[in-house]
Specification:
The complex is a heterodimer of chains A (130) and B (399). Chain A contains no helices and ten strands. With 130 residues, chain A is mostly beta strands. Chain B folds into two domains: 138 residues, Peroxisomal Thiolase, Chain A, domain 1 (3-Layer(aba) Sandwich), CATH 3.40.47; 212 residues, Thiolase/Chalcone synthase (Peroxisomal Thiolase, Chain A, domain 1), CATH 3.40.47. By secondary structure, chain B is α/β, with parallel strands linked by helices. The chains are: A mainly beta (130), B alpha/beta (399).
Amino acid sequence: MSEQVPIVDYLVLNGSPYLEANECGNCSARFFDRRNACASCGGTDFDRIRISNEAVLTSFSIVHRAAPSVPVPFVSAIVKTDDGTSVRSNVIGLDDPMDAELGMDLILATYSCGTDDDGKECIAFGYKPV
Amino acid sequence: MSGDSIWIIGASMTKFARYEDQDAVDLASTASLEAMADAGVSIHDMDVLAAGTLFQASTSMGQRIQKQIGQTGIPAYNVSNACATGATAIRTVYLSIKAGEADMGIAIGVEQMGKMGLLSGATKSERNIFEPSGRYGAVMGVDGFLGTETMPGVFAQAGMQYAYENDGVGFEQFARVAYKNHKHSTLNPLAQYQKEFSMEEVMGAPVQSYPNTLLMCCPTGDGAASVILVSEEKLRSLPTETQKRAVKISASVLTSDPYVESGQVQPDVNTLTKNAASQAYEMSGIGPEDLDLVELHDCFATAELIHYDNLGLCEPGGAGDFIDSGKPFRDGSMPVNVSGGLISKGHPIGATGVANVFEVATHLRGEAGDRQIEGAKVGLAHVIGLGSSCGIHILEKAS
């Protein structure tokens, strides 16, 4: 099996993939990137925490026009996980993009999104209907 | 008139279009010379100049304009604040006068975009080696894999979030916004497009990012706008005719986006607009019910709809009913974007925030021609720059 890398460093790949975030030790605000200080309270202590894989679709757009390198159409999504974290990704696994519905229950899933010149495989995440 | 208010005594904008034979400096100079002529003043009366442009932000635009309209040695501020660039230029002059450093100044907004196409989104790299980089440790461009980064999609999601949280909002309501603005633009000779489209044509146009079709997205283009601001004391020294046509800036507000939980994945264009609106209403003593017209930031139809709510033009959660009721049409009780809005008038980014103020001021002066809102006394101009910034100006007719 070829070496795999996650598309972003907050996607953890193992037997059961999940997302991680930096959670502010003071106010519990969560950030997928590194922060010098918390944007919510200014705190500087963060803990690495695991984000729930279950989510609800709170907004989406079916994108038909994008840069030439981006395959279209795709369903861009904002989801809210069961533990209250907003995540941006795609809704995947729909027969028709127009099947996307606000409020639908989703669960995190991963898929291959390409191989680099060294044969390394990139793994992305999306959310599929439960 | 008494007190320390700031007034607009001159305003002008070029037609928004695609200019092949003029550059951004030409457009800005044209708007500026016209605005000074409109005010009956000259470059020698200016104590300060602020020039806003986004895509030429590092080119000393203010000084380049001075080379065309007069190098008098006054301070020139070059400002850039995404789509709020023009409003920020106005506020820069406003603050200089408030601070007592200037009696009169010129604010300019300009942009030359041509057929720029989609803003933001993926850029293709020659390199195809997956190595983590950036603050998210991304090994490749994530646009299209982890959602969209393009503007039609981001603003589509802002509208769909509103649809998720409120009843009575869907594709048809968003489409009606674009139908309205295209219809309004037929009366505005300064608009980039002046063509009416049916609801069927709006809804049947090629989908860019659902629910935004092509006719629900603003075009790219070129244009400039300028306004001349004066202190109240200075205004009193000017001819009676100038004083009669002066428009009072009753509120000038700029906000940035405060922290919200979802802000890291979807720009929050709501909270900073609500904050700016409440500050502007408090500063001016004017409520949304007092407004005779509003020019708001309809970069996409989905954006206009949510700003009805953010600016307090409708009941909370009632933006769908508001557009369905016909109130924001030019013959309704709360005309919104009678210029045609960004969707049809156009959106040369740096010019937009000044052009919106030009539009409102022109109505308050009773000089808007075929598109005039009769008897308009109070108006509001709003812009949003993603990142994010919100600029609001409330203007009042001289009494």
